[in-house]
Amino acid sequence: MPDSHIVTNLRWSRADVAALLALPFPELMYRAQSVHRENFDPARVQISTLLSIKTGGCPEDCGYCPQAAGADTGTKASKLMAVEAVLAEARAAKEKGAARFCMGAAWRSPKDHDLDNVCEMIAGVKSLGLETCVTLGMLTVPQTAKLKDAGLDYYNHNLDTSPEYYGKVISTRTYQDRLDTLANVRDAGINVCCGGIVGMGEDESDRAGLIATLANLPEPPESVPINALVAVEGTPLANAEPIDAIDFVRVVAATRITMPKSYVRLSAGREAMSDETQALCFLAGANSIFHGDKLLTTKNATVNHDEVLFAKLGIKPES
Asked: Are 245 and 277 in contact (CB under 8 A)?
């Protein structure tokens, strides 16, 4: 992304976000819930389903990812799924309450002939009445335009962590590479889905740096996934210390306050979270989840468990 895309008048400085994260917990939760209620129905949650349409064999070295070619996780590389197989999964997701269907492919960047197939998937999923989202790696301007023409609603491309900590997790693409793709997506008129991962060994300053970077993009992302690292054996981060549950809730709350109109999605790591932690996250302003038993290659909370939890909390899926 050229320098002209960088915001110089910051909406939120890193110090501002760090101060939020350090607030007494009751005060932080009060502020987050107040902001949430100004912009959303606090008893509604948006439901998305994520499908891996091409698994494994990615040439990147992201330290958290079991799909990286160098990771010794037993994840086998697969070819791109057939269009009709993807549409069958989308139909099933809609029947289980999903409003958005997200498709992920383990590529550094898509080849043009593969992109043609993905565009066919996008058109097919939209015809079912679902919102569409894909995550395919880095994009060129022409590729982004092709996705827009196919009717893509959202493109996911996470920043993962702060600019300073990023190099400790990934070396095969730069932070600027990620910002460039986000700029291409935004310039094409596609909604941006962009968030990060916590629990990778970063400190609180890095968490503040990630949130500040997201909040100060030329336009904040419409959707902000907050992932708790799922430490997978065979990846460089297999032995990372899990993030404290209250610290995770603090990240969600600060994200809500700094990006008041964005959907804040509980993403990876929910399978290991207690009902109480998830309830606090919803109270802190999370209003989106991934529905389904698997997120790409890692476990997710089951659909049945989510339905039971929603009933306990009086939460309903957003229609």
From this structure: yes
- Which helix (H) or strand (E) is 298 found in, with range? strand 298-299
Angle among Cα 211, 282, 198 to the nearest 5 degrees reads 35
At residue 5 the predicted structure's pLDDT band, cuts being 50, 70 and 90, is very low
Is the sign of the CA dihedral 107, 108, 114, 117 positive or negative?
A: positive
Instruction: Give burial (CB, 10 Å; 0-12/13-18/19+) of 280.
Output: buried
Annotated catalytic residues are: 58, 62, 65, 102, 133, 193, 265
**DSSP 8-state code for residue 98:** -
SS3 string, 254-283, reads HHHHHCCCCEEEECCCHHHCCHHHHHHHHH
> 75 pLDDT band (50/70/90 cuts)?
low
H-state helical runs in the chain: 14-21, 25-39, 83-95, 112-127, 141-150, 175-187, 204-215, 245-258, 275-283, 303-313
Per the rule left: phi > 0, alpha: psi between -120 and 50, beta: everything else, 151 is left
Decide if pLDDT at 2 tops 60.
no
Amino acid at 130: L
CB 96 within 8 A of CB 295: no
- The per-residue pLDDT for range 82-104, each reduced to its tens digit, is 999 999 999 998 988 888 999 99
Which positions ≥6 away from 148 have C-beta within 8 Å? 188, 189, 190
Interhelix angle 204-215/14-21, nearest 10 degrees: 120
